[in-house]
Amino acid sequence: HQGRTPPCTQSIVDAGIQEVIIAMQDPNPKVSGLGIKILEAHGIRCHLVDSKLINHHRIQGSSGTLGKAVKQIAEEMNAGFIHRITKGTPWVQIKMAASLDGRIAMADGESKWITSKAARQEVQKMRLASCAILTSSKTLIEDNPRLSVRSEECEIPIQRQPDVVLLDSNLVCKPHHRIFEQLDHPRTVHIFTSIEQRETPEIKDLESAGALIHYCKKGPDNNLDLKEVLEVLGKREINRLFIESGGKLAGQFIQQKLVNELTLFFAPILLGHQAIPMFQLDNIKQLSDKVSLKLQQMEQIGEDMMLGFWANP
Question: Strand 304-311 and strand 293-301: pairing?
């Protein structure tokens, strides 16, 4: 089996490496330990990390603790790939930048800038680590974002640009929008729209601009079926999906339990009750309807605080 990149087994054999310690096995059923068998056939000793291996090599730490930590790190690094292989859909991360009172913009939509430059630089790194960035047609019309990794704000060398995913049920996107701008590295612009738009004349213009059009059914709320969107992206081998949108679309993903990770940046400011809230969660009517999260990370970024949560723990 060979995917987008060649297997590392031959390189290990050619390098003359005699022993390999493996943090986790590849979850892809097409592989299923085949790499280990190839290495062992060449006389290379292979070990999966566990408590016995830790004790054998006399690594510091309580029995099994380090082995579990190494495996956990490997699983977190490969979370998108593991999720797509085992679930068929990308790992979904939502990013929000807000004031301390949970507001993402003023009532008139003004939002530049709530958080600091350091926080925005951190977001660029998150974009770079993603396979695609998703937003809504509402955000497209209001902000006309390019949704790219900005090299001037990213300290990591840029070798690729993430794809763009636009949810546009009424097909308001036009070829002049900035998501179609030519970048140093090519990318695909995926536009998801409703089946009813299949005969729309503007389709040809968007395809000529480079868009890949996907037609989806609508759910009970008359919005695009988000689960179907994720299934299509999974088939396109999108491992990590980074959502940058308003509170309505983010809330829909959360309420349908389609989110794996929430990254929230809080600036030390207050915007008041008339400003736009972070999430629109229409299904929460009482305390028992609350959405529970698990805190995974807390870090000060510049003047702001970044909190990372696992959703649906």
Answer: antiparallel
Residue-by-residue DSSP string for the chain: ---SS--SHHHHHHHT--EEEESS----TTTTTHHHHHHHHTT-EEEE-SHHHHHHTT-SSSTTHHHHHHHHHHHHHTHHHHHHHHHSS-EEEEEEEEETTSEEE-TT---TTSS-HHHHHHHHHHHHT-SEEEEEHHHHHHH----S--GGG-SS------EEEEE-TT----TTSGGGS--SS---EEEEEEGGGTT-THHHHHHHTTEEEEEE-B-TTSSB-HHHHHHHHHHTT--EEEE---HHHHHHHHHTT--SEEEEEEES----TTSEES---TT--SGGGPPPEEEEEEEEETTEEEEEEEE--
Amino acid identity, position 300: Q
Instruction: Calculate the CA 169 to chain-centre distance.
Output: 22
Please compute, for residue 239, the number of CA atoms within 13 A of its CA located in the half-sphere on the CB side.
Answer: 14
For the stretch 61-85, pLDDT in tens is: 444 555 567 778 888 888 899 999 9
pTM score of the predicted model: 0.86
pLDDT tens, residue by residue, 216-238? 998 878 899 999 999 999 999 99
306 contacts 126 by C-beta, under 8 angstroms: no
Q: Which of 28, 30, 11 is nearest to 20 (CA)?
A: 11
Angle at 94 between CA 178 and CA 224, to 5 degrees: 70
Residue whose tokens read 């036009």? 174
